[in-house]
């Protein structure tokens, strides 16, 4: 089976990018969109993010064979409930939420009797809203599917083929494992960025210094991440609380070890860690995983608009 009519609920960065990518890579597929915000719907129409933007969520999903929920994880249950009356019996409902275990549970509870196959394209930027989306967002990126036990194989295969058509490499994973892995590779890095930029800003206020003005290199990279959408990230931490807390304990232990090394002037401990981490970075670059987005030109998509 393959999808012919895809409904995208939430037309921000992720929803808009899916709409544009489907129109580019799957030209025979009809795309219909809905967003709870009338201003977003208007802008989505102007940008042509999907073929058709409807003002009613129930109508938006009618006759769709794939519905993708692209709203903040805290709004998934509400979005699913809003579309439920329009869903056809055979539909696949999926999402793009950054945390999976609690979202999967919420969707299964809200849509009993429907096939729900959660997904997480590990692709994004610090930008959000209907102007942020672009068709190549998913190219050469991972997309993790977390199908529940007993999910129909043909539907999992169809969703896999859908994401592959948009340029992603698909991996199937247990939702709990996903949340642990993403806690350390995505959620804690965002927390560190939000915190360090906040610390520098507080310091600046106290000392009347120009910490941020003269920041360059590493700190600038942190400010990009710390510009990410506050609603999205508040929801991620509320919905992946356990895994984030567990990984934070590990991280804070390692940070303490570095503090001890600095205090003891243990250069060898520092050198060993930095050598190990440099090898990891080089491995990523050699595998071609670094900024693999083909046309992710900073001029087009990297504007500091957040
Ligand atoms: N931004 C990223 O880098 C990234 C990457 C991968 C996955 N995700 C996940 O994708 C989802 C969407 O993130 P985004 O970056 O596209 O956010 P976004 O803010 O750009 O877009 C979200 C859209 O959802 C709409 N919305 C909110 N509640 C709604 C509801 N109940 N019904 C319909 N529309 C509603 C908002 O009006 C907004 O336009 C989140 O769950 C996030 O965790 C984000
Ligand atoms: O590249 C970025 O700006 C991102 O933050 C993308 C990123 C990530 O942490 O890798 C953010 C959240 C997601 O759920 C997936 C991808």
UniProtKB/TrEMBL annotation:
Keywords: Amino-acid biosynthesis, Aromatic amino acid biosynthesis, NAD, Oxidoreductase, Tyrosine biosynthesis. It is an enzyme of class 1 (oxidoreductase). Residues 287-306 are annotated as: Disordered. Pathway: Amino-acid biosynthesis; L-tyrosine biosynthesis; (4-hydroxyphenyl)pyruvate from prephenate (NAD(+) route): step 1/1. Its EC number is 1.3.1.12. Pfam families: PDH_C (PF20463), PDH_N (PF02153). Residues 290-306 have a biased composition (Basic and acidic residues). Residues 4-292 form the Prephenate/arogenate dehydrogenase domain. One of its GO terms (molecular function) is NAD+ binding. GO terms for biological process: tyrosine biosynthetic process. It catalyses: prephenate + NAD(+) = 3-(4-hydroxyphenyl)pyruvate + CO2 + NADH. PANTHER family: PREPHENATE DEHYDROGENASE (PTHR21363), PREPHENATE DEHYDROGENASE [NADP(+)] (PTHR21363:SF0). Belongs to the prephenate/arogenate dehydrogenase family. This is prephenate dehydrogenase. It comes from Aurantiacibacter luteus. The lineage of its organism: Bacteria, Pseudomonadati, Pseudomonadota, Alphaproteobacteria, Sphingomonadales.
């Amino acid at each position: 089976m393959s999808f012919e009519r895809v409904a995208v609920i939430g037309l921000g960065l992720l929803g808009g990018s899916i709409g544009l990518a489907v129109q580019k890579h799957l030209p025979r597929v009809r795309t219909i969109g809905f967003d709870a915000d009338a201003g977003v719907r208007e802008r989505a129409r102007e940008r042509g993010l999907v073929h058709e933007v409807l003002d009613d969520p129930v109508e938006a999903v009618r006759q769709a064979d794939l519905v993708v929920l692209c709203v903040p994880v805290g709004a998934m249950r509400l979005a699913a409930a809003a579309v439920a009356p329009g869903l056809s019996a055979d539909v696949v409902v999926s999402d793009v939420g950054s945390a999976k275990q609690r979202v999967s549970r919420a969707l299964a509870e809200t849509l009993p009797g429907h096939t729900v196959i959660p997904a997480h394209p590990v692709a994004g930027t610090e930008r959000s809203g209907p102007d942020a989306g672009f068709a190549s967002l998913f190219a050469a990126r991972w997309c993790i599917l977390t199908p529940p036990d007993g999910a129909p194989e043909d539907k999992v295969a169809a969703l896999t083929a859908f994401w592959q058509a948009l340029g992603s490499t698909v991996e199937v994973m247990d939702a709990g494992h996903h949340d642990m892995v993403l806690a350390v590779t995505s959620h804690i890095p965002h927390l560190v960025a939000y915190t360090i930029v906040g610390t520098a800003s507080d310091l600046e206020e106290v000392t009347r210094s120009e910490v941020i003005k003269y920041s360059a290199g590493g700190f600038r990279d942190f400010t990009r991440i710390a510009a990410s959408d506050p609603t999205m990230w508040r929801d991620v931490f509320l919905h992946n609380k356990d895994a984030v807390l567990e990984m934070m304990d590990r991280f804070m232990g390692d940070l303490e070890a570095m503090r001890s090394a600095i205090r003891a002037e243990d250069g060898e401990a520092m050198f060993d860690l930095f050598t190990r981490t440099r090898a990891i970075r080089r491995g990523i670059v050699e595998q071609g995983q670094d900024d693999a987005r083909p046309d992710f030109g900073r001029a087009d998509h990297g504007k500091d608009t957040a």
